[in-house]
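Q: My labmate handed me this sequence with no annotations at all. I'd like to see what the chain might look like in three dimensions before we decide whether it's worth expressing. Could you predict it?
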Amino acid sequence: MSLGQASAPSGAHRPVRVGLVAWSSLFLIVVAPFVWAGQPYRDVLGLRPGMPERDVHGRMEKLGKPAGGESEEGEGRRETWLLRDRRFASITFEFDSEMALDWATAFVRPRGKGRGVRYTDIGDIGRAQRYGNYIYTWVLPVVRTGRQIGVTARGSDSIWISSVSIHRYLRDSVNVLPGGVDKAAK
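A: Here is what I predict for the chain of 186 residues:
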């Protein structure tokens, strides 16, 4: 039997129309992985810079529990949550002075205790900016917010990451880590 035909009870073949839904599904299954291959993460565990505090907490309550005390640093507030995720053990994030998410960093579980995360799981490293041996940053296109978002993956080898961050991308200062710490000052 070929695609688009079904056998009639009499044994004769007659064409059957394949609906738009079937063709759309086939397109998504076959073509979409090639179109999206190499596209970097657009969020980290559903978090994006600029999200309101209540939305961040609503998302995090589904994924884990607070690790403990909150840190008041500068204008924002930093929190750490322990996760029930097979890939990530914890996440730390900070809110800006308007209580919107400024940045978030998820820390990968050690391989063997969870499923590891590869740089290529984050995005095509050929499209990333490379800083140091195993630090890659993808700059996402500007969307509704008018601000560029950066996704940074760090690791200790060329295949596996140890953390992934999402942050507002600072075009003039590529040496600034999430939280405003200058790498050159370290």
